[in-house]
């Protein structure tokens, strides 16, 4: 399996799991916070969905500068809107990977705010970091779902709500 095929497989697997979390998202509870220092569930949800677009961004750009590219969150109000937005990002990522090369994956990618560099790595590593961030923030959604009484979908094994996998 080539490197890009490995990345495609990982993106596909994480997308399948993320879709389960999209299907049960409580759009009427977007402002819920587990703690005053925690992100609102709606912001976590949007971040998880946005991370699917980072594959394309990592391959096609040399980095992201928060100073010149402020975050403008998408307004999503239904499972259908969220699923469509997410699936489009995943498809773009898969197509981008299909058309990339190892030499492009080896190029440097930098996450920064102006002169302050937050992260510097290869484009391949940045894609993997985005996948890991998806897992991390999806777990945060799971905690929020549990506290809201929403059955928590399985990720890598059963949950208290879904015992078979």
UniProtKB/TrEMBL annotation:
Keywords: Metal-binding. One of its GO terms (molecular function) is metal ion binding. A divalent metal cation binds at residues 47, 137. The keyword Metal-binding applies. Gene3D superfamilies: dinb family like domain (1.20.120.450). Belongs to the DinB family. This is DinB family protein. It comes from Fluviicola taffensis (strain DSM 16823 / NCIMB 13979 / RW262).
